[in-house]
Design a protein that fits this description.
four-stranded antiparallel β-sheet, repeat, Ferlin, Immunoglobulin-like, MYOF protein, FerIin_dom, globular, 50% strand, transmembrane helix, mainly beta, 117 residues
Length: 117
């Protein structure tokens, strides 16, 4: 299982925005609740279960809809990313600079594994 926790966003561009985060991993998508403001606090966890480990080497893709930005993280089975800020950027215009940040934690659990604290 891959567990992803969307913690918060920071410095998202725009006025009166209602950000939502979509997490795409191994063909599955999770969407957070819609929040308000440029520094939203989500604190939402999603779990994605798989029968085979092939896709665990894929990219976990985050999309912040309101900011029109995305961020990718690669991780390998057995590893974790804990409370890290990811830079969001416009995938269509890589020279446009930062479009905000999103703080996430994610880890891979095998059968019988305990999640990290």
């Amino acid at each position: 299982q891959i567990r992803v926790r969307i913690i918060e966003g920071r410095q998202l561009p725009g006025n009166n925005i209602k950000p939502v985060v979509k997490v795409h991993v191994c063909g599955q998508t999770h969407r957070t609740r819609i929040k308000r403001g440029n520094n939203p606090f989500f604190d939402e966890v999603s779990g994605h279960s798989f029968e085979i480990a092939d896709c665990l080497y894929d990219v976990c893709h985050f999309v912040m809809d309101t900011a029109g930005a995305s961020g990718d993280v690669c991780f390998i089975s057995g590893h974790a990313v804990m409370r890290k800020w990811l830079l969001l950027s416009d995938p269509e215009d890589t020279n446009s600079g930062a479009k905000g940040y999103i703080k996430v934690s994610m880890f891979v659990l095998g059968t019988g594994d305990e999640p990290p604290v």
